[in-house]
């Protein structure tokens, strides 16, 4: 009986020692950077970020130090993220700045997205 009691006490104290480590890792701030886009945070996340960071609907790629957002069958280059007004500025990499006749692969409008709000009363869009 003494050995069972010792095992239970050992497991209990082991759990108490591990608990702060588990909560510490999840409480770390989730700030990422890729190229000129710094302080990437909720709702966005980079693919290599820990799972608890950001929303996987807003997952960004970092390829050759360039931040990319995948939409539909392609991707857009992220020019900026404004967390004050919840906007992201993206550029189609196939549009050439010197060629006025180039067309985007996809036309983005509000009709391409479904809007929802989270528990913090912020509004976000997801791809239809």
TrEMBL record:
The keyword Signal applies. It is found in: Membrane. The keyword Cytoplasm does not apply. Coiled coil: none annotated. Its main location: membrane. Keywords: Signal. InterPro entries: WAK_GUB. Residues 30-92 form the Wall-associated receptor kinase galacturonan-binding domain. It is a single-pass membrane protein. It comes from the Eukaryota. Residues 1-25 form the signal peptide. GO terms for cellular component: membrane. GO terms for molecular function: polysaccharide binding. This is Wall-associated receptor kinase galacturonan-binding domain-containing protein. It comes from Pisum sativum.
